[in-house]
Amino acid sequence: MNHTEHAPADLNQARDIQRDTQPRAGEPAAPSTLQYVVLTGNPNTGKTSVFNALTGLRAKVGNYAGVTVERIEGRLVGAPAGLDVRVLDLPGAYSLRATSVAEQVACDVLLQRQPDVPPPALVVIVLDASNLERNLYYATQVIELGYPTLVALNMVDVAEANGIHVDTSKLADALGVPVIPTIATGRKGIPELRQAIISALQRPACTRPKSFCALPGPFQAEVDDLARLLATVRPSHAWLAPAEALLLLSSVRALESSMKHLPKHVIDAVHAARARLEAANIDWRTLPIEARYATAQAIHQAVATEHWPRGETVTDKLDRVLTHRLWGTVIFLSAMALMFQAMFVFGRVPSQALQAGFSLLGRAIESVLPPGDLTDLLVNGVIGGVGAVVVFLPQILLLFLFIEFLEDTGYMARVAFLMDRVLSKVGLAGKSFIPLLCSFGCAIPGIMAARAIESPRDRLVTCLVVPLMGCSARLPVYTLLISACIPETKAFGVLNLRGLTMLGMYILGIAAALSMAWLFKNTLLKGEPSMLVMELPPYRKPLLGAMLIRMWDRAKLFLYRAGTVILGVNIILWFLLSYPRDAQLERASEAKLAEVRAQLATGGLTSTEAETAMAAIQAEREAARLTHSFAGRLGRLIEPVIAPLGFDWKIGIGIVASFGARELFVSTMAIIHNMGQPDDTGLNLHDLAQKLRTERRPDGTPAFTTLTGVTLMVFYVFALQCASTVAVMWRETNSLKWPLIQWIYMGALAWIMAFLTRQLGLLLGLG
Amino acid sequence: MTPEPTPLTSLREGAIATVAEIKLPAEQRRRLFELGLLLGTPVELVRFAPFGDPVEIKVRGYNLSLRRHEAEQILVRPA
To answer: Could you say which of A99, A329, A420 has the minimum Cβ distance to residue B54?
Structure first.
């Protein structure tokens, strides 16, 4: 869109141009130009349903540049040939004076400051007819911006059910823009809305935005002066200047976020204007809000008629149970248990099937291709890496489906309401509960679930601590170490000591996550305490089709973005574990193998004996290869660091190898103790535990004492031994800084806690 | 004569009052104003969450959840 032809020659004309001509999206776009229609409105207005109905559910989900706010856009279905219309579903906002990052994005797009979004050709405001007054507060701010604007008056059915009738034509008159009543979930009014969008784009109406904010004379004069100044700074956007000026003058946050967009003399002018207003005893913060709400209230009263006095709505009735102190909590805990069960118990079936499938594929390739480095790379590096990504997919899909469900029904806000008290003790908010819970299964969905947390600081703290929760990948490590190191005895006569140790590790993880959250909130991520104000929206019936499609869109994003990094890290790890090879060593084992084969041929060995001998040689070769590899050398290299913890270099290799994923510790232990690569039938943990128990150090002392086992488990409680978590953190925070901080703090904590465990154990005479 | 303003949290569940004063930092007060919680606005205390925190209120026909220590800074006059 080109506004420059209306740029004022004289700065004094800026305001006159705004008032007297219509320079906005004035000229019809050339055929087949891409045009952006932005959808905006308060949260919980059914905006997404309107979007789905307009775009036919084929959305592109991504992120806005530089922030982790979801960007959802799609092509308008049913646009005539030559008209390429994109609909952008902006994050919900309560005001253009942004408080959250998501609101800031909505504001930046509308003020044309978001670099990756082209100027909107048309704005569609979605209003919730059942909650009109507060919706009008935001709508009037947006209309004042001066874009060609349409209003979709949504959820008229809910309003009617609540006994409220809204007069559409009166509302259109009051707002000065067309109003189309819709019931987006039932697709009612959508054809009309689509038609209105198309005609508005083809023949832009000469709208003259009304002002909905009657300010006292001196205040209005300051706004006008600032608008003239802004028009000189961005002549092409002179038509936006009056609304922008009011925003800058009346909001601290708006001015702060404009620092990088505006020259210093404009910022100074704003401060000077505020000082003059303060001197005149005019409250520049509050007055525009009061004035606008007065207008919103007046419009609301004029257009809405209540058939009967407001009584108890369906939501009120449901909430009496669902947020009840006792029943609400019981229902909530049951729902969470069900969700957890579904994700990590039912989700495991397809997860294991996928893993087995990839393993079979690898075997098939191995049998077809000649043995060699390339085959090894393909099978163990690439296919193993892809397997490592897709193994998360069933859980991620289920998680997204649950989150969609919780968000769409409105129950998510109740989760936050019920859990807030418990989590606010450590500085988190109620919405951190779901990420923490998910992380008992896996930190990857846990970190992704943290997207639902609005406050960036709370979200970051949540992401930083969720990997401390005992995830399912730690389970094989604990199981192995417990059966190798913890005696099968009863504690206090009744409790099984092994079970108790396992429980202890999980409790340690929870305690660590909560303490670290508290610590982060009081140190590194300390800041002004954010006020938690949260709308409890009316309950709504979710739409399954839309939920499934959005789930898939989000999962695709996970595959593209995190999946590629996980794959890359796995290939690197494969390399570190396989190279360099020692030619002499390879020749020696080849010779041994040849000898066995020769003996078999001459009848010196039976085929069973030969098989056993060959398996032993293979296992020995793999152990030698691993010891010789970069990872093996790294394991030896870190021995001085881990020696104070009572770990030898073999455990060191296990720790290095399990950076890829914690469960790799088990297979690495198997390889290094000459038990060979575990096959698909599953490594026999019992045999490996037996082997570890008999393992001796060079000085003859047992390598795995009870104390070493416990120390190692404590190490695994804290250490971030998971490349996928690092990858997802990187993607979700858009920087390497936070995953790095996370990796280091968890590693340091792991060492310190393991060290303390050992010292305490030695004091108690263990070891 | 008008009754003395009391903290919003002193209301019983289901009671309605009007906002008299918000003793919070300017930016937080601004946020509450923008959500419609202006001085003189009727507000209903709907319920307290388990452990008495947060607080659910109804204002201008919709429901909001506030933390107790912020809700305590909102002074109201019982209607």
So the answer is: A420
